[in-house]
Amino acid sequence: MLSDQTLESHTTSERDRILAWLADNVPQSRIQHILRVEQMAISLARHHRVDVEKAAKAALMHDLAKYFKPQKLLTMAHAAGLEIDPVSKANPHLLHADVGALIARDTFSVNDEDVCSAIANHTLGQPGMNALSCIVFLADSLEPGRGETPELEELRKASYRNLEQAVWLTCDYSLRLLIETHRLIHPRTVATRNWFLQKVKNSQQATDKTA
């Protein structure tokens, strides 16, 4: 059953069309994840006074290309002129966010740059992300289905306190997991972590000077 928040966020017909496409292209377990991301994105958007409709739409569409085969991701990324760095070439799955934004644009006529950027940035992040992209990035990483550990609970609380701080803390969390499991780390995640860490530090320093 759809919540009132979801129904308010964008039209039923548009949402149904996206869900129908997802049903044909991703497993049911992934759709449940997508719906949890959608709900957390709506909640964060309301809390931080960000456009709720955009947050709901980007969250609902963030994993459009999640289950595309590696060669399809590489082919679509190449055709669109997207950067295919060595890490992405070795692990094409990392391209699913950027390719998902292309699907949103070409299949669902999403021309809103904020929504497309939020879809494209939800996995690796991006230095200087706006609040909408931060919200979808955090909702994808921290939705309830990810687990109930004390660390995740703290990150969820941080996402309501300060989006920028929550982004660098969540990047730290993700980087630790990647290191522990001996997986490749994409430089964009490191760059995102560094940018938001520095932004928070600069803000704190400015506050300290005026205190």
Automatic annotation (TrEMBL):
Reactions catalysed: P(1),P(4)-bis(5'-adenosyl) tetraphosphate + H2O = 2 ADP + 2 H(+)
Name assigned to this protein: bis(5'-nucleosyl)-tetraphosphatase (symmetrical)
Keyword set, alphabetical order: Hydrolase, Iron, Metal-binding, Nucleotide-binding
Nucleotide-binding in keyword set: yes
Keyword check for Hydrolase: yes
Stored InterPro entries: Diverse_Catalytic_Enzymes, HD/PDEase_dom, HD_domain, HDIG_dom, YqeK
EC number from the UniProt entry: 3.6.1.41
Pfam families: HD
HD domain boundaries: 30-145
GO molecular function, one term: metal ion binding
